[in-house]
Amino acid sequence: MASIHILLLFLSCTSFVYRCDGACAEPESDTQAVVGRGFKLGCLSCKRRSEVKATATVEWYFKAKGEVDFVQIYTYTEMGPTIENEHFLDRLDWNGSKRSNDIQDASIYILNVTLNDTGTYRCFFNRILNYDNYEYTTVVSKVVYLTVVEKATRGTASIVSEVMMYVTIIGLQVWLLIEMIYCYRKISAAGEEALREAANAEYLAIASESKDNCAGAQVGE
Asked: Which residues contact 31 (CB under 8 A, 6 or more apart)?
């Protein structure tokens, strides 16, 4: 019975994942980059009503560590990308939505990260929703606090996540072992019960046959 419940739960979850496959999510960007490597600055803004047509442009701003003001570093419109700041010249690539003016992923990729890239990044979605009789403009802002290090380090979240993964694997193995023992005992008990019933049936058949033989012998006398 437990196995049937598990199977039904698995099928239900699979169906749910299938239905939600097209859903948009807004995960947070990573916040630690390594000198000399590439790094993706994540920025996502899901459109809440998928049936409404929309267009969007994106602007990225950067405030270096210790600075007060933001400077514009990147723009993405229907005409394409533009790097707005010399510090990032030839080091920024578009990593967001492609082949669509309805931008929901505005991520960009920094090439050859330097220590001077440490700071605060902000991306702005300037989105126009096109309804039947009017247009509605919205502005969505996302912030990424980036730290650049000389060498890659494992964060606490990564360590905890790995530990939880191993704990989950061990827990599942223990649960599977318990389930196998339980099923084995159920099958063994059912087999023993069947053997007892067969033995009782055979005993009753022999007893009945003996009784009939005795009765026949008494009639013959």
From this structure: 144, 145, 146, 147
**Cα–Cα distance for residue pair 98/105, rounded to 1 Å:** 9
Whether residue 111 contacts residue 93, with contact meaning beta carbons closer than 8 Å, is answered with yes
Alpha-carbon span 84 to 71, nearest angstrom: 9
Range with the largest mean pLDDT of 45-54, 87-96, 167-176: 87-96
Strand, helix or coil for residue 68? coil
- Is the CB of residue 47 less than 8 Å from the CB of residue 24? yes
CB 179 within 8 A of CB 161: no
**Tokens standing for residue 80:** 């394409």
The Cβ of residue 40 has, within 10 Å, a number of other Cβ atoms equal to 15
**Rounded Cα distance, 41 and 123, in Å:** 10
In this structure, the number of other CB atoms found within 10 A of the CB of residue 33 comes to 22
Quick one: which of 191, 12, 37, 16 has its CA closest to 114?
37
pLDDT in tens, 9-52: 444 444 433 333 345 677 778 889 999 999 999 999 887 777 78
CB 35 within 8 A of CB 112: no
- pLDDT reported for residue 85: 95
Whether residue 140 contacts residue 125, with contact meaning beta carbons closer than 8 Å, is answered with yes
pTM for the model stands at 0.59
